[in-house]
Design a protein that fits this description.
Strand 15 and strand 16 form a beta hairpin. Strands 1-2-4-9-6-7 form a six-stranded mixed β-sheet, with no helix packed on it. Helix 2 runs antiparallel to helix 6. It starts with 15 loop residues before the first strand and ends with a helix. The protein folds into three domains: 119 residues, Jelly Rolls; 115 residues, Jelly Rolls (Sandwich); 110 residues. 19% of the residues lie in helices and 32% in strands. By secondary structure, it is α+β, with helices and mostly antiparallel strands.
């Protein structure tokens, strides 16, 4: 089938609720097969799904205004999909434009409600994934007006680049209580919590672990915005939650930070690799050559991965990247190879500026920050 997905795109962040009451009408199906029982997607968060015999999964995403949208499937199951407007008219369909013979769309759409109807290409059953992005040069908007939605309890991924960058996240609160917004990861962040009129409620330059900020504030139901800046380029993980919190004190945790510095970084690296790099890049592209006995090792390549059938493939493949960067080349060399440079025998596997390219760059930056 003709590809509807151009080579270059940029990423943002995604999660789910359902369009009709959190799935109570799905009768055991993980995702509904009608518009009323569809699962709502949150931009940038990958949604897990499963197709049974004869099953169809329907997902929904909302746009407040005209935007470039990318939606793609991933995983081992060969999926196909249709893109539909709010009237149910098919405006796009695709089979193999995504990774590993999955579907992929990129479309410029007006504001409104849209649906993605996913099925198996040849009637097979199994698990699959779906991710939707708002395409823009910056991974997250830099004003409250073009902010990325951050669902409560979701650990999103973001990157400050350049150092003057600002990322803004929209947080929707339904009940009165304490709202905590904070970041995790190796980047020293500063943050602001703003109300629906964009007035600053509270700001912080610390309060969290390892130089990250943390803000706790009592709020009424409404819309709030988290503004994030940093003093240098780096990757971080924004989170927002409602609950009962004690203010985090830097001095109180100073000794713990020393002992815990290694583990959170390792966890961040592994989590990001599992969610954004392993399936679409390593298993979807690199494993074809960079595996023991494959073309790349036989040609003298030092970067060798294990397939997903290995129970420890995530940890082993993260270690393969880490050892390669530590003992052979830097992260920039890996990106050059991936885009077809430096005499890469596999040619161009990624396009500069694409979602996968940006995710690989962020993962490699985390590895370098770890060192």
């Amino acid at each position: 089938m003709k590809s509807l997905l151009p080579a270059a795109f940029a990423a943002v962040g995604m999660v789910a609720g359902t369009a009709a009451g959190d799935g109570e009408d799905n009768h055991g199906d993980d995702h509904g097969d009608t518009y009323l029982s569809s699962t709502r997607l949150t931009y940038g968060v990958t949604m897990d799904a499963e197709l049974d015999a004869g099953d169809i999964d329907v997902f929904r995403f909302d746009l407040q205004g005209r935007a470039d949208i990318e939606v793609r499937g991933s995983g081992r199951l060969d999926t196909v999909a249709e893109l539909l407007d709010s009237e149910g008219d098919v405006i796009g369909e695709d089979d193999d434009s995504g990774p590993s013979f999955n579907f992929g769309f990129r479309e410029t759409l007006d504001g409104g409600v849209y649906y993605v109807r996913v099925s198996s290409d040849v009637g097979d059953t199994g698990t699959h994934k779906i991710t939707a992005y708002i395409v823009r040069e910056d991974d997250h908007g830099d004003t409250s007006g073009n902010s990325s939605v951050l669902p409560l309890g979701v650990r999103a991924t973001a990157r400050i680049a350049p150092a003057t960058d600002r990322d803004v996240f929209r947080v929707e609160v339904e009940h009165e209580g304490q709202l905590r917004v904070w970041t995790e990861g190796p980047t020293n962040t500063m943050g602001e919590l703003r109300d629906s009129t964009d007035e600053v409620i509270e700001s912080a330059d610390g309060g969290g672990d390892r130089g990250n900020f943390s803000i706790v504030h009592s709020v009424e139901p409404g819309v709030f915005y988290m503004h994030v800046t940093a003093d240098a380029v780096g990757t971080y993980f924004p989170v927002a939650e409602m609950g009962e919190f004690e203010d985090v004190d830097d001095d109180h945790h100073a000794e713990d930070d020393h002992h815990e510095a290694e583990e959170p970084t390792e966890s961040a690296v592994t989590t990001f690799f599992r969610e954004s790099v392993s399936t679409p890049i390593v298993q979807g592209r690199c494993i074809n050559c960079h595996v023991q006995g494959g073309v790349a090792p036989n040609g003298g390549a030092h970067l060798v991965f294990v397939p997903a059938t290995d129970a420890d493939h995530i940890d082993k493949n993260v270690s393969a990247f880490r050892d390669f960067i530590d003992h052979h080349e830097d992260a920039a060399y890996v990106l050059t190879k991936a885009t077809g440079g430096a005499s890469h025998g596999g040619g161009a596997q990624l396009t500069t500026g694409s979602t996968d390219y940006q995710n690989l760059a962020s993962f490699l930056a985390l590895l370098e920050d770890e060192g």
